[in-house]
Amino acid sequence: MKARHVGFAALLLSLPACIYAPQSPGDHHDASPHKRSTPRPTAPGPNPSPPPISRPPPTDPGEEEPPTSEADGRLIELRLRGADVADYSQILVMVDAVEVLIDGRPARFELREEVINLAQVTHAWKVGTFRLPETARDVLIVMRLGPTAGTIAGSGPGAIDLRASPMRFHSPAGHLRFNQHAVVHLSVEHSLVSTGAHPLLLPHFSVQY
To answer: Long-range contacts of range 185-189, CB-CB < 8 Å, 24 or more positions apart?
Structure first.
């Protein structure tokens, strides 16, 4: 019983040495978890200068912008009319493409997609329009039909091959500017060439303003 008291006393004497044992400098920690080092406020620096703003150069009040190409020039109509249709009651065609060169430069052509009956010789069908500048002198127009025309004649229904050649002609710009249209008169009877099953159309035409 006495030996047990001695061992317990020795244990109590060794505890302070464990609790208050000195620590190495690298093991030092702040005992208070709520203390934080407050950084010192720094003096405010100069405000950065704003980036430069690019401004357009001043314009001359008397300077005007050039007109757009869409509104440059007078509107010209191109029309197609059948003539000399013999005994045909229907010659149904469509214009496949129209090319316009004004003084050698391509011009935009607004093609109207419509079935044209060349047998109605009293009607000039509107093909489309383009703009003619005031300074223009010469206009080249190339109109292509195709590829075939459906026909009805005294002998019954048939077809005409339209792939042979386009209609190509020069027009004085002054005539177009004054009348604002050009009408192509296609002589069907003088344009047909017999070639096997279907006749071939080699365009024979004139232009009126």
So the answer is: 185/81, 185/82, 185/83, 186/80, 186/81, 186/82, 186/83, 186/118, 187/83, 187/84, 188/82, 188/83, 188/84, 188/85, 188/86, 188/88, 188/91, 188/118, 189/84, 189/85, 189/86
SS3 assignment, position 203 = coil
Task: Give the predicted TM-score (pTM) of the model.
Answer: 0.66
Q: Which of 109, 99, 177, 167 is nearest to 137 (CA)?
A: 177
Return the half-sphere exposure (C-beta side, CA atoms, 13 A cut-off) of residue 143.
31
Q: Which helix (H) or strand (E) holds 184?
A: strand 181-187
The tokens describing 79, both together, are 């029309």
What gap in Å lies between CA 175 and CA 184, rounded to an integer? 14
Q: Give the whole-angstrom CA distance, residue 118 versus residue 11.
A: 128
The domain locations on the chain are 70-208
pLDDT digits (tens, 9 = 90+) for 26-74: 444 444 444 455 555 555 555 555 555 555 555 454 444 443 344 579 9
Average pLDDT of span 124-144: 97
How many CB atoms sit inside 10 A of residue 89's CB?
Answer: 12
Q: In sequence order, what DSSP letters do the residues of 86-105 get, joined into one string?
A: TT-SEEEE-EEEEEEEETTE
- For residue 14, how many C-alpha atoms fall within 13 Å in the half-sphere facing its CB? 6
Q: Mind listing the pLDDT tens digit for each residue in 87-115? A: 999 999 999 999 999 999 999 999 999 99
